[in-house]
Amino acid sequence: MKKLIELEVNGEVHELAVSPDETLLGALRDHLDLIGTKQGCDSGGCGCCTVQVDGKAVYSCMMYAVSVQGSEVTTIEGLARGPELDPLQQAFIDAGAVQCGYCTCGIIMAAKQLLDTVKDPSEDEIRHAIAGNLCRCTGYRKIIDAIQLAAAAA
Amino acid sequence: MSLPALSDYFIPEQQNELIELLQRFGENAMIVAGGTFVHGLEARGLLSEVEALIDIGKLGLNGIATGPSGVVLGATTTLADLKQADFIQNDPAFGAVKDALGYPPLQIRNVGTVGGCVAASVPLYDVPATLLVLDGTVHALGANGDREIALTDFFTGLFENALRTDEFITELRLPAQAAGTASAFLKLETNANDLAIINVAVRFTLDEAGLCRDSRIVIGGGIGESYVRAGSAESRLNGAKADADLFNAVSKAVATDIDPVTDHRGSAQYRRHMAVVYTHRALGRALERLS
Questions:
Q1: Helices A104-117 and A140-153, interaxial angle, to 10°?
Q2: Å from A144 to nearest chain B CA?
């Protein structure tokens, strides 16, 4: 049995018919074609699927789409304003913080919550903020540099 | 569909409605709060018989209240909200909770709930070990009314607890802690998003003579079906002067109090050794909080 839900994603309200056990990740990728949010481990271990719900970073693979009704979801696609990238996105380019790129969107969405709440984060705070995200290319140094760059630019 | 028997996802807005759903679906109902535990089980194919997911996010069960008799934590209070609470940040008695909340990543803290991590009844979780050493109690509501269950009686096995099928957790309560009380928690893990290989929570009160009183040592992680209270270690701590020699003796006693498992993440011998090491460090950290 499908459930009809209203999902607000990146400022737009969508009406979707989802299975009751459809995850937010599934709703974003399979129903709305927002494939910037990645499917990784599918069990809350890698962070590739990180999005924001009401301004807080969450694993979208571990949330039921039905439960997110009435909340505001932001994905990586919702960060840029027209052609202008979010400072975090720009900083990842400038710092060369992308290798294969699979983890990048999730890390940016986790770092986004940090920069939204802490003005001048220490390296320790940055490391803790992205502790729930794995980069299997292991390029953490440049990722941390990028987040510091974005924090300085803000 | 990964839940083959699922018929519907319910979001009750009244507690009575929730109890009716729990009565209707019995063993085949699964309560969803933050959802992280539920998805963990689902990913492992352990929820094939679940017919109803029941989301308790709209019942207003979140919130933290402090008073002279202690602390009341609403069941759906998130770990992130608890972490920010003033008494968690500043009161040495609740240091163990602060320590435990430093481990889960942002994404888990933002949605994971206090009630959920207790209801899960898995000794691999961190926060329940700290609530155990603080003499926490579970408040449950069901068709026959509400009742209070000491956490020490609550965990009855792996994924098993004292809740009846029509009951749910409304609150966790922690009694007021005596002056001179401190607690600490440590976890051994392979990465920042790992379940505990071993974890240790300790609490004691220093009396005016500098002697330890009313101590609690709880070991979790891969130690069997449920948390283990290190009774012989606690009895060595009680009435003794807190110093390095005592902490050496107490932590060594933990080795005989536990019977850890061997699995791909660590041998029983390794877990036993690390439980001793971590107990020693946790005792030191708690003592430091009182200086």
A1: 40
A2: 16
Closest-CA residue to B74 (of B113, B35, B21)? B113
**How distant is the Cα of A119 from the closest Cα of chain B, in angstroms?**
17
| Whole-prediction pTM | 0.96
Cα separation, B262 vs B193, in Å, equals 21
Mean pLDDT (chain B) is 96
Interface probe, candidates B9, B56, B58, chain A, greatest A C-beta count within 10 A: B9
What are the helix (H) ranges across chain B? 15-25, 36-43, 79-84, 86-90, 95-101, 106-111, 114-119, 127-133, 151-154, 231-237, 244-257, 268-289
* Residue B191: pLDDT band with limits 50, 70, 90: confident
How big is the A-B interface in CB pairs under 8 Å?
Answer: 92
pLDDT tier, B44 (very low <50, low <70, confident <90, very high otherwise): confident
Count of domains observed in chain A: 2
For residue A63, give the CATH number of its domain: 3.10.20.30
State the CB neighbour count (10 A cutoff) for residue A80. Answer: 12
Give the mean model confidence (pLDDT) for residues A2-20: 95
pLDDT digits (tens, 9 = 90+) for B1-17: 579 999 999 999 999 99
Task: Please state the length of chain A.
Answer: 154
Which of these three, A78, A113, A145, is where a domain ends?
Answer: A78
Map tokens 């994905």 to a residue. Answer: A75
ipTM, two decimals, is 0.96
Whether residue B126 is predicted with pLDDT greater than 80 in this model: the reply is yes
Which is higher by pLDDT, B1 or B25? B25
Phi-psi region of B234 (alpha: psi -120 to 50; beta: other; left: phi over 0): alpha
| Closest chain A residue to the Cα of B39, Cα to Cα | A62
**Last-in-domain residue among A37, A54, A78:** A78
In this complex, is the C-beta atom of A58 within 8 Å of any C-beta atom belonging to chain B? yes
Identify the domain containing residue A39 by its residue range. 3-78
Residue A25 burial (10 A CB sphere; 0-12, 13-18, 19+): buried
Mutate to test the interface with B, among A48, A64, A115 (most CBs of B within 10 A): A64
Q: Which pLDDT value is given to residue A138?
A: 81
